[in-house]
């Protein structure tokens, strides 16, 4: 695919079909993403692909936590105890992910898709070592973007979501991730359910006006 087409198509998918992704294709994408740059070529990332029965069990256990009212506790949030600046907070309030759902009075679509892990049949969980500088988080972000762009180029739909790592101890259990690693992010990979209301283009969020994020000083 033309690079610009891949780039333009990289929008998130909140409901996948039941079709699984070929295991060799998943490995091919992640192998290629290893070319991503990283600080001093440290390559701090690891990728754990969960599919089939273990993924089903994880979804079931996570759903039970949510239904029981358990507090989400992602490793990153806990580590950095984020105190968001007003700038991204305002962006989230104005053009954030859930805003279009909110304005169409369809927040349940957003919530249900998250609570069921978007019906993803293949999820890649991404980790870095617990003893990591902030640079490794940056590196993991680049690695994630590489995976997503390569996946879109292969005709797949993508769904990066922190909600899938809200209960990291469960992810660790089913993906066999050692305690020495932070469960940073998760990306669902698969095929878009084009009939699902949650995927309707009217829910694609806008970006901030360019002038708000760009300054040329000369
Ligand atoms: C680090 C990260 C975490 C995200 N977590 C979630 C999430 O938990 N749930 C969700 O529905 N979307 C999540 N998203 C998707 C964003 O909401 C989405 O990329 C953004 O709203 C822009 O939409 P677009 O990518 O379709 O243009 C996440 C994206 C990133 C990069």
TrEMBL record:
Q: Which controlled-vocabulary keywords does the entry list?
A: Oxidoreductase
Q: Oxidoreductase among the record's keywords?
A: yes
Q: Which residues form a coiled coil?
A: none
Which SUPFAM superfamilies does the annotation name?
FMN-dependent nitroreductase-like
Q: CDD domains of this UniProt entry? A: PnbA_NfnB-like
The record places domain Nitroreductase at 11-191
Keyword presence, Oxidoreductase: yes
Q: Which GO terms describe its molecular function?
A: oxidoreductase activity
Signal sequence, start to end: none
Under InterPro entries, the record lists: Nitroreductase (IPR029479), Nitroreductase-like (IPR000415)
Q: Which family does it belong to?
A: Belongs to the nitroreductase family.
What name is this protein filed under? Answer: Nitroreductase
Organism, scientific name: Lactobacillus apis
Task: Show the taxonomic lineage.
Answer: Bacteria, Bacillati, Bacillota, Bacilli, Lactobacillales
């Amino acid at each position: 695919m033309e690079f610009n087409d891949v780039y333009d198509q990289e929008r998130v998918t909140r409901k996948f079909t039941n079709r699984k992704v070929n295991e060799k294709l998943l490995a091919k994408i992640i192998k290629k993403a290893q070319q991503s740059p990283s600080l001093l070529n440290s390559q701090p990332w690891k990728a754990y692909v969960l599919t089939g029965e273990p993924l089903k069990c994880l979804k079931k256990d996570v759903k039970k936590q949510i239904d029981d009212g358990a507090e989400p506790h992602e490793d990153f949030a806990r580590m950095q105890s984020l105190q968001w600046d007003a700038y991204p907070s305002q962006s989230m309030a104005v053009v954030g992910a859930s805003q279009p759902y909110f304005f169409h009075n369809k927040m349940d679509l957003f919530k249900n898709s998250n609570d069921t892990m978007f019906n993803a049949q293949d999820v890649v969980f991404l980790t870095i070592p617990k003893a990591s500088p902030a640079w490794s988080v940056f590196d993991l972000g680049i690695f994630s973007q590489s995976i997503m762009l390569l996946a879109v180029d292969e005709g797949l739909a993508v769904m990066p979501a922190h909600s899938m790592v809200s209960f990291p101890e469960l992810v660790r259990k089913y993906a066999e991730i050692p305690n020495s690693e932070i469960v940073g992010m998760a990306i669902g990979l698969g095929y878009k359910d084009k009939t699902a209301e949650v995927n309707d283009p009217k829910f694609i969020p806008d970006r901030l006006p360019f002038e708000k994020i760009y300054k040329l000083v000369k």
